[in-house]
TrEMBL record:
It comes from the Bacteria. This is Transporter substrate-binding domain-containing protein. It comes from Pannonibacter tanglangensis. SMART domains: PBPb (SM00062). Keywords: Signal. It holds the Pfam family SBP_bac_3.
Length: 284
């Protein structure tokens, strides 16, 4: 069964250098002010499109926290839900959201069951032939974490000879093997075991997904043991090229409007508000 929801309306540049993202340092613990990434070039100018859609129906899931999920009262909420609402407010478009299973989203968009997918649909070669994608609005970097008392020993770049825990077979393990062969990898069968190894002091550092690590650092399972070291790592080959909104190939008007809306939300500080609301520890 699908669900329709009407969204009520009120009417740091990231560059990569051999995989390293040059951004402001992310906060180490929950409660600090998250450093907000900026994926839009401030030197480029973008005027409001001559046409904007009167109505946008977004397609999303409801089982992808913190992006889109049901709260305790079964209300749909999340970063994607609020981002869709903010885009519609900026574009002065009426807005609705239709919930589908993630695997059904591409076919639903092609079947005209909605106008745009906002659900972390990856821009693979196959999907890039079927759809057009907006500019990136969020990337998912790899991050190093260390025990809090050791944070001053690491600059976020030099890890040669350091024993680092990773999940066995993960893209983060593959990244280190390819980009940092001098790191002493210690592979564990699960990401939780790799993190626990750091918490117990069995390794000097852990490398993994920055987003989920930000929640681990701020949660009970970490026992406040650890902290990020400076600098996220971005590499399209291993971590993908970021989250985008997908539209049909013939919908140039909507694509231009969404790109304009994303830029305006960043310029107005609305994007920063949403990022800090849903990612309070921050992962950039």
């Amino acid at each position: 069964m699908v669900t329709y929801l009407v969204l009520a309306l009120s009417a740091l540049i990231v560059n990569s250098d051999e995989g390293r993202a040059q951004t402001a340092d992310a906060p180490a613990t929950a409660g600090a002010t998250a450093a907000v990434p900026n994926f839009w070039d401030p030197r480029s100018l973008m005027e409001r499109p001559a046409q904007t859609p009167d109505r946008i129906q977004f397609l999303a899931t409801d089982d992808f926290p913190p992006f889109s999920f049901r709260d305790r009262s079964e209300r749909l909420t999340g970063f994607h839900v609020d981002l869709a609402r903010a885009l519609c407010e900026e574009l002065q478009s009426s807005c609705s959201l239709r919930v589908k299973a993630f695997e059904a989203l591409p076919e639903a968009l092609e079947a005209d069951e909605g106008d745009a997918v906002i659900a972390g649909l990856a821009k693979t070669e196959e999907l890039a032939r079927r759809f057009r994608f907006t500019d990136v609005y969020l990337r998912l970097p790899g991050r190093f974490v260390v025990r809090s008392e050791d944070r001053g020993r690491f600059d976020g770049v030099q890890f040669a000879g350091t024993e680092v825990s990773v999940e066995r077979g993960s893209r983060h393990a593959a990244f280190l093997k390819a980009r940092m062969p001098d790191v002493r990898l210690k592979e564990y069968d699960s990401v939780s075991a790799a993190r626990d190894a750091l918490r117990r002091g069995e390794v000097a550092a852990h490398f993994g997904d920055g987003l989920t690590l930000s929640f681990w650092l701020g949660g009970a399972l970490s026992e406040e043991c650890c902290a990020f070291v400076p600098g996220p790592w971005l590499d399209d080959r291993f971590f993908g090229d970021g989250l985008r909104i997908a539209v049909r190939t013939d919908d140039a008007v909507l694509l231009e409007a969404l790109n304009y809306g994303l830029r305006r939300l960043q310029e107005k500080g609305i994007y920063a508000e949403l990022y800090r609301r849903y990612f309070p520890t921050g992962f950039f």
